[in-house]
Automatic annotation (TrEMBL):
<comment type="similarity">
    <text>Belongs to the UPF0311 family.</text>
</comment>
<protein>
    <recommendedName>
        <fullName>UPF0311 protein C8N35_1011514</fullName>
    </recommendedName>
</protein>
<dbReference type="InterPro" id="IPR020915">
    <property type="entry name" value="UPF0311"/>
</dbReference>
<dbReference type="Pfam" id="PF11578">
    <property type="entry name" value="DUF3237"/>
</dbReference>
């Protein structure tokens, strides 16, 4: 049987999107990650600036999420995170998100599968742990809740 345990809540602060335009597989956007916080019993700290979300937005408004950023833990470890996922929902809900409106996360689907990598022995368990997440988009940030698959 599959069990999940809460790992951490993240608030990922975002800069203005860079629109690359339509490409063969969809509209490409790069959204800078400028900082944020991580809070959980086993994982807490800050999100460092310098990462980004390389999104592909498809004709139906759904988005493929491909983020990469760094976490600095409360005790000084550095952890690389690559987070892949999807966001989709009714066209009117996705349009409201695109305009920067606050939208209840229950109105759309946003799920992720983060992967972690670190050389710090205190967090080596993350290198081989499956994690899944739920997300919500705000005007200038994304909130994520990560669950460890036990």
């Amino acid at each position: 049987m599959l069990e999940l345990a809460h790992l951490a809540d993240l608030t990922v602060e975002l800069g203005p999107p860079l629109e690359l335009g339509d490409a063969p597989k969809g509209r490409r956007r790069i959204i800078p990650i400028t900082g944020g916080t991580v809070s959980g019993a086993r994982l807490s700290g800050t999100i460092l600036s310098g990462g980004a979300d390389w999104q592909t937005v498809f004709a139906d408004g759904s988005a493929e999420l491909d983020t990469r950023y760094m976490i600095e833990t409360h005790d000084g470890a550095t952890i690389d995170i690559r987070n892949f996922g999807y966001r989709h929902g009714p066209a009117e809900v996705i349009a409201r998100l695109a305009r920067g409106e606050e939208v209840d996360a229950a109105e759309y689907y946003m799920r992720t599968a983060p992967r972690f990598e670190t050389g710090d022995g205190r967090y080596a368990w993350l290198n081989h742990t499956l994690v899944v997440g739920t997300g919500a988009r705000q005007k200038a940030s994304v909130t994520l809740t990560f669950y460890e698959v036990l």
